[in-house]
């Protein structure tokens, strides 16, 4: 196994990585800076489009890959990465103020899923599905900090992270109608096995159905077996705040890991970089892009 920083840019809070199959580049966001980023891992160069607010995920449109689905504070927007222009698609309902969006991802049908948080408040966030016409449909509530998403290989289970709740949940999922029900706890980071590993943040899944979970404050990425609820592998990272991960590369056998700086810490010179983890012995699948 090898771990290598592949971005010259050090993000304040790198998040939401999404591999672009067509360009062989990695989209991600520098959330609080408000930048939507595109990294060429071959050169280490990151292009960025700046938006005025907090950006939390970026997903290409399947029909036109120059267009990106992004969140900006309480808004969902369509961004043209080339021109930097963006169009408002929808926003959170007024009664949810002061909620804002956080992480997001698409299911196998190209429906976008995203959750919210309310700063300094517990269990005020929700999980939403973005339906045709850019209509937000509430799926679940009582979430403190909505975060990583993944689907099982058979698309019968939706995995979902509440970071501040320190839990990974799972739902019964129906791919046909996009319903998710019967929320249950899969992993509780308050349990002894997960002691000292920070909180679960972003997440992806490999071709063997195992979850890869970035641990914010835990300096690692965990490979977890959802069937046995056990840690199969721990990848130690060279910085404390590990935010998210996704598989990429021509064969989807590179795990790209986003990270964040840690205030007051000077002995982690690569904190905020995007890392490539290779020779893992497994791989992921092509990501799901957004379908209008």
Please count the beta strands (DSSP E, at least 2 residues each): 24
Write down the Rg.
Answer: 17 Å
Q: Could you give the order of strands across the largest sheet?
A: 1-24-23-22
- Summarize the biggest pleated sheet: 4 strands, antiparallel
Counting DSSP H or I runs of 4 or more residues, the number of helices is 0
Helix content: under 10%
Mean pLDDT score: 97
Strand-residue proportion: over 45%
Helix-and-strand structural type = mainly beta
Order of helices and strands: EEEEEEEEEEEEEEEEEEEEEEEE
InterPro entries: 6-blade_b-propeller_TolB-like (IPR011042), Regucalcin (IPR008367), SGL (IPR013658), SMP-30 (IPR005511)
Catalytic activity: D-glucono-1,5-lactone + H2O = D-gluconate + H(+)
GO molecular function, one term: gluconolactonase activity
Family: Belongs to the SMP-30/CGR1 family.
Question: What is this entry, summarized?
Answer:
The protein is mainly β and 292 residues long. It has no helices and 24 strands. It is globular.
Describe the structure.
The protein is mainly β. It has no helices and 24 strands. The protein has strands spanning 2-5, 14-20, 25-30, 35-40, 45-50, 55-60, 67-72, 75-80, 86-91, 100-106, 112-117, 125-131, 135-143, 146-151, 157-162, 167-174, 179-188, 199-205, 211-216, 220-225, 230-236, 241-248, 254-260, 275-278. A 4-stranded antiparallel beta sheet has the order 1-24-23-22, with no helix packed on it. Strands 2-3-4-5 form a 4-stranded antiparallel beta sheet, with no helix packed on it. Strand 22 and strand 23 form a beta hairpin. It is globular. The termini are far apart. The model has no long low-confidence stretch (mean pLDDT 97).
